[in-house]
Amino acid sequence: MEIVETFSQARAHHHGAVGLVPTMGYLHEGHLSLIERARRECDTVLVSLFVNPLQFGPGEDFESYPRHLERDSQLVAHAGADVLFAPPSTEMYPEPPFTRVAVPSLSAAMEGRDRPDHFEGVATVVTKLLAALQPGWAYFGRKDAQQLAIITRLAFDLSFPVTIVGCSTVREFDGLALSSRNSYVSEEERPEALALSRGLMAAANAIESGERSGPILEAIVRTTAPNTEFSYVQLMSRRAVQRLETLTEDAFLAAAASVGRARLIDNIHIDVTPAGCEVDRGKRLTGPSILYGE
Ligand code: AMP
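ok -> structure tokens follow
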């Protein structure tokens, strides 16, 4: 595997079907599942690693976000990627960009309400990656459901010749959705962190038993985790990222909470088919995550 720092060096490796996996590094099994899927489906697998300052708000953890290029490059190579594109910020933003990309109607709720400008930062950097690296396929986690909805829509609206592939959430063995920020959660805070996935799994059970009411599903999450202070619990349509009263179209049920200094988000992904609802709860690891390996 080669590590490159410029867009043109990355493009020079392209052959056949090109798959891109954008990340901010400090990789875990969630990221690796995206890379492994790209490996199965594409001829060239490109992983990008860039901690994007545009998507962090004032007072967020941009400076302290965990960075470890050597660790990450070994993991990316082991997962079978061909190229790791790790640009310095002078390559990504040679000058502060005058152009920003926004998908306002999908960005207003949930994470966007609590983190103004976050999704504009995400949409801008992903647009740059799609424009400059020209992948035919780009892989993103369902873990970040609102982000996935925004990226799917921007690729469609801007006519990028790319297929956006959403991949199941990977969870730690106790159910906590993997996130690089889980390294901020202490042993004492762990039970509170687990309340998110416990609540969502209870709602998944209810959906599978026939429950279709948005407010009731949201209440199930909250009552399963009575001691957690949620920022939100919402059943949202995947297409418009709007609250659903009733589960009548493809959706996600999402929850967010701050636990200590970690802001945690999680969701379940729900397909509505004529035969009924199919819930993707994600996949659990069978042992401890590599996040805690060193
Ligand atoms: P990040 O490095 O946090 O920007 O994440 C890079 C990509 O990995 C995004 O598409 C995320 O949605 C995805 N991702 C992060 N955590 C998980 C997870 N637990 N399971 C699946 N995908 C994930």
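The chain has a mean pLDDT of 96.
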